[in-house]
């Protein structure tokens, strides 16, 4: 396999009433056909990473540094028609709230048909046929009838499926999924996760899936990148992260997870709160909350230390000189 996406030292700073350094040197690669989960609590930079890849961040008061390459092309330099042709046919995105993608004044079938007509130049009959095929592929019941439905006429789970159909209509090579199952009940959530995994394998696309739930990551991902305070603190396969977490934050996330917890047992919450990120971190951002922090952790920011292919940890305890 070869990398489809290469993110190198990505930084994002928002300025306004206060400055927020949302991303602080994120580096990540995604192979062709691979599913990578970005795992972390709210505010860790997961969604900002996805929006940077799609150039969806507001232009004003946003400063972006570093590099994002998609199949060798510099994404941050795409403009105008080139950017429009990148979104949809190359990279598509689905959201937690389908209203961010679905227009309330157009029928679902019309929205899908218009998308493929614009990007692929299909005739109206062919575009309508594609729309029907996509609704069938995402397992929407009575797809012929649902083509004329408006978003408000569908249940939450069905709207989510319609949004997936719209995103995948042009056969993108990369799908960005920003917590698309969080607002769904457990049964529907599992159905959507299984559907996404099936479509990913069928279409051979890569996926970057944002979640705060390790249980969701287990169901969908091949590999996990754990994020904290705008940085990646650990990467590894699902098995490596679950069975052998190395970073103290990853261990804390697993200990605080509800999945498999004994009813009535006390969960081990991570003490303290994440940093405000009004200044870029100059030391380990997790050190103030870390149960094993040393003086060196407060003195300098640890690098992402390689522990093998696809495995890395940003913790001074992983350095050979400390072990």
From TrEMBL:
GO terms, biological process: peptide transport; transmembrane transport
Annotated Pfam families: ABC_tran, oligo_HPY
Membrane topology of the entry: Peripheral membrane protein
Annotated keywords: ATP-binding, Cell membrane, Membrane, Nucleotide-binding, Transport
InterPro entries from the UniProt entry: AAA+_ATPase (IPR003593), ABC_Ni/Peptide_Import (IPR050388), ABC_transporter-like_ATP-bd (IPR003439), ABC_transporter-like_CS (IPR017871), Oligopep_ABC_C (IPR013563), P-loop_NTPase (IPR027417)
Cellular component GO terms held in the UniProt record: plasma membrane
Family matches, as SMART domains: AAA (SM00382)
Highest taxon above the source species: Bacteria
Subcellular location: Cell inner membrane
Molecular functions (GO terms): ATP binding; ATP hydrolysis activity
Family as reported in the entry's similarity comment: Belongs to the ABC transporter superfamily.
Name of the protein this chain belongs to: Peptide/nickel transport system ATP-binding protein
Organism: Loktanella salsilacus
Native organism taxonomy: Bacteria, Pseudomonadati, Pseudomonadota, Alphaproteobacteria, Rhodobacterales
